[in-house]
Amino acid sequence: MASMEEDGSVEEKDNNNKKRTKSAIAVAWLTFYNIAMTAGWLVLAMAMMRFYLQKATHKGLYKSIARTLKFFQTVALVEVGHCAIGIVRTSVIVTGVQVCSRIFMVWFITNSIKQIQNEESVILFLVVWTLTEITRYSFYTFNLLNHLPYFIKWARYNMFIIMYPLGVAGELLTIYAALPFVRKTGMLSMRLPNKYNISFDYYYFLIIVMLSYIPLFPQLFFHMLRQRRKVLLGEIIVEKDE
Ligand SMILES: CCCCCCCCCCCCC[C@@H](O)CC(=O)SCCNC(=O)CCNC(=O)[C@H](O)C(C)(C)COP(=O)(O)OP(=O)(O)OC[C@H]1O[C@@H](n2cnc3c(N)ncnc32)[C@H](O)[C@@H]1OP(=O)(O)O
């Protein structure tokens, strides 16, 4: 009996140690990840400011930062993994929609359709994303280090009230500007007849993407409002199981 208890406590200790080791590794990884992402978006912010100060125009700005933007925005896919393995307490679906819509904007709209890269709406969502991500990743970093300045916490849970609608406006206006080029070129579309017997029209797909903002964006926005109430106002929010 005593030995079983002993065995049990050894096993329990071992499990606790494993949990501690796992969470220490998770914390170390997240700290590294968030510092790297803050740095990445700061580099983007500086590159955009330098471009604008030197050239006094937004024309050519997207092209000058495209590689860095594609890299850091694509790396954010890792965040869906963080949620899936449970090292951050966020919904896979909410994070997935947020990250995938951004990746779609970068790769399948702005990067693929050169004619729209100089639209003001591109600059709008770029500036909004950059300010948001610098705040968000520095919030996570300082939070993990247990040294979170109040103004960063305040900015994280207030800025989105303005930034989300502005970002969405930039994204939707950019997709809208892309429509005539997509229709004219038939890019990324498959017309019948073809050997796969499949038809796909990217033009109509983009219209569906634009319409999908109507049900999806409010979910993200209200999720952030709930987070805001929880963190800034200390409300206890009972989370529904996914
Ligand atoms: C294929 C075609 C696809 C087409 C799809 C079309 C869909 C269209 C709808 C989508 C519209 C999106 C528009 C958007 O792109 C526009 C903009 O972004 S504009 C700029 C404004 N944006 C924002 O403010 C972004 C806000 N979003 C986010 O913050 C996140 O992405 C979100 C997942 C929405 C919310 O984050 P989260 O739930 O994580 O909230 P918290 O920050 O409060 O964190 C919760 C807990 O998790 C911990 N956490 C999360 N991540 C980390 C991390 N990296 N490191 C450490 N810890 C992390 C966090 O600390 C919290 O922990 P705890 O509760 O324990 O304190």
Structural commentary:
It catalyses: (3R)-hydroxyhexadecanoyl-CoA = (2E)-hexadecenoyl-CoA + H2O; a very-long-chain (3R)-3-hydroxyacyl-CoA = a very-long-chain (2E)-enoyl-CoA + H2O. InterPro entries: Tyr_Pase-like_PTPLA (IPR007482). Belongs to the very long-chain fatty acids dehydratase HACD family. With 242 residues, the protein is an all-alpha fold. It has one domain (2-233). Helices cover 77% and strands 0% of the residues. The protein contains 8 helices and no strands. It has helices at residues 2-55, 61-75, 78-85, 92-110, 120-144, 150-156, 159-185, 202-233. Helix 5 crosses helix 7. The longest helix has 54 residues, at 2-55. The two termini are 41 Å apart. Mean pLDDT is 91; it is low at 1-8 and 14-20. The chain binds ligand L7CU2Q4V. Ligand L7CU2Q4V binds next to helix 1, helix 4, helix 5, helix 7 and helix 8. Residues 30, 34, 79, 88-90, 94-95, 97-98, 100-102, 104, 128-129, 132, 136, 140, 143-144, 160, 163-164, 167-168, 171, 209, 212-213, 216-217, 220, 223-224, 227 line the site of ligand L7CU2Q4V.
